[in-house]
Amino acid sequence: MKFIKLEDWHPKGIDDLEPNAWLALRRRESTSVIAGPGAGKTEFLAQKAAYLLETGLCPPNKKILAISFKTDAAKNLADRVTERCPQELGSRFVSMTFDAFTKNIVDRFYSAIHGDWKPTQQYEVFFPNKRSVSDFWRRLQSSVPDNYQFSIMSEVRQMTDSTFESNVVGSWRIPAHGIHAPQSARDYIIVSWLLEQIKVSNDGQSSISFTTLNRLAEYIIRTNNHVHRAIKGTYPFVFVDEFQDTTYAQYDLLLSAFGLSEIAVTAVGDYKQRIMGWAGAKDDAFHQFEADFSAQRYPLRLNHRSSPELVRIQQVIAQAIDYEVSELQTNNHNQISGDAAWVCVSRNIDNEASYLAQWIASDLRSSTLKPRDYCVLVRQKPEDYEQQLSSYLTQYGLSLRNESVKIGKTTLQDLLAEELTILFSTLLRLGLGQRNAKVWSQLSAAIQLLRNKNQEDEKALRQVEHQLTNFISELRDAMLQPFTSENTRHVFERVIDFINLKDLRKAYARYATGDLLEINRSALEVFFTHCVESQSSWANFLDEFEGINHIPLMTIHKSKGLEFDTVIFLGIDDNAWWSYQPGNTEGLATFFVALSRAKQRTIFFYCQQRGSRRRVSDFYALLTSAGVKEYEI
Ligand SMILES: Nc1ncnc2c1ncn2[C@@H]1O[C@H](COP(=O)(O)OP(=O)(O)OP(=O)(O)O)[C@@H](O)[C@H]1O
């Protein structure tokens, strides 16, 4: 394949990059890009990947590793690269979540774990909460030797159950040479916590949290030169998206894997969107990264997402988070007439729900927007809002879908972003006869990748194309059969067989080891059955499966990285924001993330029946100072 000369390379799919983005793109060493919402940080990473691959700076035997925090963000980035690069180049862009990267190292290099630290090869992933931590502390109190009791308990008193795993365990390194007598009470507590997870439980397996997996991955890389060299040799370029959310453990893993080496790490993020402090995100991740990796910082100024009016309102909130924040700019246009943001105040929930349903229905009628151009955002418990709003929306033929809902061991939002799910629904769409040249060529490229065919081997590629054509025609026949549970079950199994989970495991690094693929296959089956039961034809089934006619409902945390034409932000009251302290930066940042998902409009709802608004009065004061008006509904 012929490479593009450096000076001839141009961005793909967008007109241009702003000057600092060009500098950050061309820099060969570690780089940090700090920019506000909608500044194109994810887009920048996709362009940088295309630049490195197409110019040959990332040579054919090497790959780019991109780490994101959420499955849909990892998928979104991978898709952007696939759209911008020929397939043989795009397949060298490995995009996965931090958790998948961590688990992958432990599963792949399991034999590099020694002695007491070795868990069972098959293990359960354990999600500790405050209760599991305090229970552990209680157990420790009754089991420690008398002479240790005092110091252990006084150490525990200085710890917080919510940050114990992320901050205390996450910043501790497993010693290279086995377990010696603990050096301190703190060591004793951490070692006991780790060993309790590693030891075989009643069901014959270890039960390990992601922080513990992370510590094991870091230990493997630090103590095994072969592993360390293999990882560095594969990935000369590493990208980290949403870097402001990096935890102590994740940062330490990055440092051990890629620090003090020739690997160029590009970290992008926005400290004003730092909303994972409660989950252990480091406060000074960018500064430390710039010092440890000799990274050069490039701020970006343009907002490519939101209308000028929304950018102006965002600026007011951004300044409340950081008064030194630079002026945001946008080249976008206001596409609506009238207000870009307003607050609807109601007395009771029925009032609010009825108004909201009526407003969306009328807006849909008078615009070209589709249900998925709207998004209902809430701080927590989306299921409560779903219950309160659904019957009102139904009256107008509308419906909400809670995208944060759990399906098996994953969530709907994550499941829908999985490669397995996308292949599955694309095959069904083609089976239904919905021909689309672009979809066909993307699917064909994905199947070639899955079957591991060399792009130069035209005969093999034709064979894959032929198999795919035959399968689609067989599928079409099967989908013409009556839509019964038996027939739909048969289609499910045929499609899964055709995809071939073994091939999927080989083709995608994050499926390579461990149980992620099995978790997703089971969840896919659960969700498939659920959709089949509520529908009567394949066409309706697919719309339901993909949620085409539903308005998404999700938590603000789950909305990170996403964008919608209109954001409907519900539940800005003291009950939903019970832990918010006036002026608290992380709370303001959460508010900022919600506001900045919108391209054209953000509508805020306050309902007296849900709670008062004393604690959250800052939010309303800021909106008022930005000129956002309130209306009684
Ligand atoms: N240089 C550019 N020119 C035109 N459009 C762009 C450019 N960069 C990004 N965009 C578009 O702007 C929108 C926001 O981009 P992106 O999601 O990459 O921003 P971000 O900085 O990662 O956002 P956030 O931090 O808010 O999630 C997307 O629709 C993207 O396609």
What descriptors fit this protein?
633 residues; alpha/beta; 6-stranded parallel β-sheet; 26 helices; 13% strand; binds adenosine-5'-triphosphate
Widest sheet: strand order?
A: 13-16-12-17-18-11-19
Helical fraction: 40-55%
Distance between the first and last residues' Cα? 62 Å
Determine the mean pLDDT.
Answer: 91
The small molecules bound here are:
adenosine-5'-triphosphate
* Major sheet: 7 strands, parallel
Structural class by sheet pairing and helices? alpha/beta
Share of β-strand residues? 5-15%
Can you walk me through this structure?
It is built from 26 helices and 19 strands. Helix 2 (41-54) crosses helix 3 (71-84), helix 14 (308-321) runs antiparallel to helix 25 (585-595) and helix 18 crosses helix 19 (437-450). Helices cover 49% and strands 13% of the residues. The strands form 5 sheets. Strands 13-16-12-17-18-11-19 form a 7-stranded parallel beta sheet. It has 633 residues and is α/β, with parallel strands linked by helices. The protein binds adenosine-5'-triphosphate (ATP). Adenosine-5'-triphosphate binds next to helix 2.
